[in-house]
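Table S2 (continued). Query chain:
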Amino acid sequence: MDLTQALALDPASSTPPYEQVRDRLAALIVSGEFADQARLPAIRALATSLGCAAGTVARAYSELEEAGLVATAGRAGTRVIGQAAGDGELAALADAYVSAARARGLDADALVAHLRVRFAQGS
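Corresponding output:
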């Protein structure tokens, strides 16, 4: 798999570059393209290959870590830990939720805020 091509940024998109990187990496992890414990490219190396700032990739990695899809361990790098999140049924439900949210014009921040409220309510 050519990761640079799979993660190519769309400069005309209204989606910020870090979200493009995060979303595409998350999709690759959930789909199983990255095996459990697979090492992701170093932040600077990936940023260079994508033609973006290292901070863009760092933020994407940070948000993937918050989502429980990757873990960063200093010099050991960033590794995939998200196979449990890649459960087919859960992934299908997430895809349906995201599609419904987009159809209603919600952005990712609104979608996450909605999930946090529902999760806190125990729904």
